[in-house]
């Protein structure tokens, strides 16, 4: 009786494993970059201009695709590049759209009026102390204000925001965790 012993040896191809992992990591980074640059963005809030809705240190998620097929509308919270008239070294602002092109805005007696109708704004920190004579927002522009009206450098200071400056619609607060949730 012949007895033959077969030895099987397994060799691990470390090069192939590293190559496969490398491809996976590069692909994941590529997808993350594409998403970050075109679909969603994460934003840090350094000021209190949107208090009490958004506080200093909040981190927000914005949808960059929100305005690909529709224009911003009143009530939207947006992130945008400030216009030149803002004279700011901050690269992005977060404010609320209060009027769009063709609408007339006025602030009097501590209240916002759009097209002569008083807006109900339960999200304000306090009524504005300033007055703003009626102005009509040009087509292709927005009028934006902070929810902390008396402590916000916004449209009442620097005027109209070109729609092309809008980067994203803010949808969600993801930090701090105890205040996580959708924004309105």
UniProtKB/TrEMBL annotation:
UniProt record similarity statement: Belongs to the peptidase S26 family.
GO-annotated molecular function: serine-type endopeptidase activity; signal peptidase activity
Broad class of enzyme this protein falls into: hydrolase
Keywords: Hydrolase, Membrane, Protease, Transmembrane, Transmembrane helix
Organism: candidate division KSB3 bacterium
Name the record gives this protein: Signal peptidase I
SUPFAM superfamilies: LexA/Signal peptidase (SSF51306)
NCBIfam families: sigpep_I_bact (TIGR02227)
Record EC number: 3.4.21.89
GO CC aspect terms: membrane
Bilayer topology: Single-pass type II membrane protein
Transmembrane segments: 25-45
InterPro entries: LexA/Signal_pep-like_sf, Pept_S26A_signal_pept_1, Pept_S26A_signal_pept_1_CS, Pept_S26A_signal_pept_1_Lys-AS, Peptidase_S26
Active site (UniProt): 49, 95
Chain ranges of the Peptidase S26 domain: 20-175
Main location per the UniProt record: membrane
Reactions it catalyzes: Cleavage of hydrophobic, N-terminal signal or leader sequences from secreted and periplasmic proteins
One of the GO BP terms on file: signal peptide processing
Transmembrane helix among keywords: yes
Name of the gene encoding the protein in the UniProt record: lepB
Subcellular location: Membrane
Presence of the UniProt keyword Transmembrane helix in the record: yes
């Amino acid at each position: 009786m012949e007895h033959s012993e077969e030895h099987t040896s397994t060799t691990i191809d470390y090069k192939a494993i590293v190559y496969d992992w490398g491809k996976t990591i590069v692909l994941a980074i590529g997808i993350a970059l594409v998403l970050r640059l075109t679909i969603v963005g994460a934003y840090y809030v350094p000021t209190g201009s949107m208090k009490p809705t958004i506080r200093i240190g909040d981190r927000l998620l914005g949808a960059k695709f929100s305005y690909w097929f529709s224009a911003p509308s009143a009530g939207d919270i947006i992130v945008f590049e400030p216009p030149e008239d803002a004279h700011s070294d901050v690269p992005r602002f977060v404010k609320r759209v209060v009027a769009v092109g063709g609408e007339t805005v006025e602030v009097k007696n501590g209240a916002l009026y759009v097209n002569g109708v008083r807006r109900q704004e339960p999200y304000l920190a306090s009524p504005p102390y300033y007055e703003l004579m009626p102005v009509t927002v040009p087509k292709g522009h927005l009028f934006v204000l902070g929810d902390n009206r008396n402590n916000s450098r916004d449209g009442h200071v620097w005027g109209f925001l070109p729609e092309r400056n809008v980067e994203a619609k803010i949808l969600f607060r993801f930090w701090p965790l105890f205040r996580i949730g959708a924004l309105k």
